[in-house]
């Protein structure tokens, strides 16, 4: 798969099959991803690959917490305020997801069910957690995190796998530290799940949209 095709066809997968990914395939993806750019070649990321029973434990306990109303407390606070144009895009994709799942706007039970499914990571068989050293005060490390996340997603796409970068995957850092043995002096920055997309799931096929080029590009000549 060429680069442009991978970029255009990559999408956030919200329903995976339960088929495990062979460890050698994950390793091949990460072997490629380690060549991602970083500030000054610092390579500030640390990756934790969670599969099998540890992942199932994390999924079950995370979902149970959200059912019980225990509020997430991620190391990096979720943004709550967005400019109107960005909020409209966020609301738009949310509407597309719920429409694909046939969940009506006033269906509170359906929305809650979808929310709990999210904390079960859409049945993905692999979670990669990206952490950084707390000793690094610069926000540049989060740019590095974004770079390797994108590279992982594109390499997975090239191998016929799907991905989804999920903030809810890192909602409960204490669980992650316990299950994945992540030291307390690391900031848990983000998680990305990998797996085989469920081809029958409408939520994996709805039409996506992006802002037009002239909406965000200024040409200086």
Keywords:
single chain; NADH Oxidase; four-stranded antiparallel sheet; 221 residues; alpha+beta
For the report, how would you describe the main beta sheet?
A: 4 strands, antiparallel
Strand order across the biggest sheet? 1-2-4-3
Rg from Cα: 18 Å
Q: What class, by secondary structure content?
A: alpha+beta
Describe the protein in words.
There is one protein chain. Helix content is 41%, strand content 13%. The chain is built from 7 helices and 4 strands, in the order ααβαααβαβαβ. The chain has helices at residues 3-9, 23-33, 52-67, 84-100, 108-119, 140-158, 173-180, and strands at residues 46-51, 126-133, 162-166, 186-195. The chain has a 4-stranded antiparallel beta sheet. Helix 2 (23-33) packs across helix 6. The chain is globular, with a radius of gyration of 18 Å. It starts with a helix and ends in a 26-residue tail after the last strand.
């Amino acid at each position: 798969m060429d680069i442009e095709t991978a970029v255009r066809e990559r999408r956030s997968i919200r329903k995976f099959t339960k088929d495990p990914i062979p460890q050698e395939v994950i390793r091949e993806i990460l072997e490629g991803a380690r060549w991602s750019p970083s500030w000054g070649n610092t390579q500030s990321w640390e990756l934790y690959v969670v599969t099998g029973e540890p992942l199932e434990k994390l999924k079950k306990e995370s979902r149970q917490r959200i059912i019980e109303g225990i509020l997430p407390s991620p190391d990096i606070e979720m943004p709550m305020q967005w400019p109107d144009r960005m909020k409209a895009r966020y609301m738009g994709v949310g509407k597309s997801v719920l429409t694909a799942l046939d969940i009506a706007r006033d269906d509170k039970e359906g929305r809650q069910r979808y929310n709990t499914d999210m904390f079960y990571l859409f049945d993905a068989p692999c979670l990669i957690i990206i952490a950084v050293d707390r000793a690094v005060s610069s926000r540049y490390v989060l740019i590095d995190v974004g770079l390797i996340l994108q590279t992982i997603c594109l390499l997975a796409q090239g191998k016929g796998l799907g991905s989804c970068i999920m903030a809810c995957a890192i909602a409960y850092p204490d669980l992650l530290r316990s299950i994945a043995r992540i030291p307390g002096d690391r900031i848990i920055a983000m998680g990305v799940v990998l797996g085989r997309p469920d081809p029958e799931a409408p939520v994996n096929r709805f039409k996506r949209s992006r802002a037009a080029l002239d909406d965000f590009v200024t040409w200086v000549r």
